[in-house]
Amino acid sequence: MGSKNMRYLDFLTTSVCLLVFLFGIVTSSSDVTRSKTIRQLISEINRLRGADDLILKNNLGSQFEQPDITAFIPSSEVFWKFKDVQSKYGYNLDDRESVTTLMLYHIGRGKIFADEIVDGQTVISKHPSNYNLRLNLFYDGSEKIITVNGAELLVRDIVGSNGVLYIIDRMLAPVSSGKTLHDYLLYPDIPGYEFQSIARASIIAPETKAATNSIDHQFTAFVPPDAILFPMPSKAQDILFFNTTLLNYVSLSMWKKAHNLLRQF
């Protein structure tokens, strides 16, 4: 065989060996990731150090070792920001029960892969009350955006041996109540919020009061707290709260806007 053919054969052999080597690296890396549980993956990703510390401190590791789960874990910088406002949402990261409830809401039941998500899809979380997580997708130009309860999935499809891990850009903090809208405005569950201004308005608009105090009616309410309304000049408050026609007009307009917005989601 000529020297030219020998060089060509050596080139082919080297190329094949290189491809096999590279393929082996990619495959082995993927295999290593898939051989680790979601709990192990969280502990090894520096970007999830905040969640890892919280899980370790509160002995919640077993929750992320369960089979067939999807975990939506906020990045560490999100955790640090949440610590500054946690009490506003009724949470205490130094209380194990509070942390457990919060973290279980970040775990969905079943494996969910990004390319299988459809807009409006829901998944039941492991929260004690089985609250749903809602997934949405939309496009910003050619970029596909996927969110869970409004939090964007920054890093997708980190596949572990027992499920799928996503890194998200905010906390998923459930705030819910079994109260009617009317009763919630009178006795809100979130510390530091009061809606006495709206309670005052309900006296002037009894039909709205009755509707919001019944489970037969469904509302989406965008309600300003007293901290926003009280600074209004007294004269302006009187014009709004004691003019039944104006108050009903404002209430109905807000409801229609809420209804139209709701239909878009």
Low-confidence stretches: 25-29, 255-265
Average of the residue pLDDT scores: 78
Computed structural class? alpha+beta
What is the first-to-last residue Cα distance? 71 Å
Helix count? 11
Q: Radius of gyration from the CA trace?
A: 26 Å
What can you tell me about this protein's structure?
- By secondary structure, this protein is of the alpha+beta class.
- 46% of the residues lie in helices and 16% in strands.
- It has helices at residues 3-34, 38-44, 49-57, 76-85, 96-104, 181-186, 196-204, 206-212, 226-229, 234-241, 244-264; strands spanning 69-74, 107-109, 121-124, 132-140, 143-148, 151-159, 163-168.
- The chain has a seven-stranded mixed beta sheet.
- α2 crosses α3 (49-57).
- The radius of gyration is 26 Å and the shape is elongated.
- The termini are far apart.
- The relative contact order is 0.10.
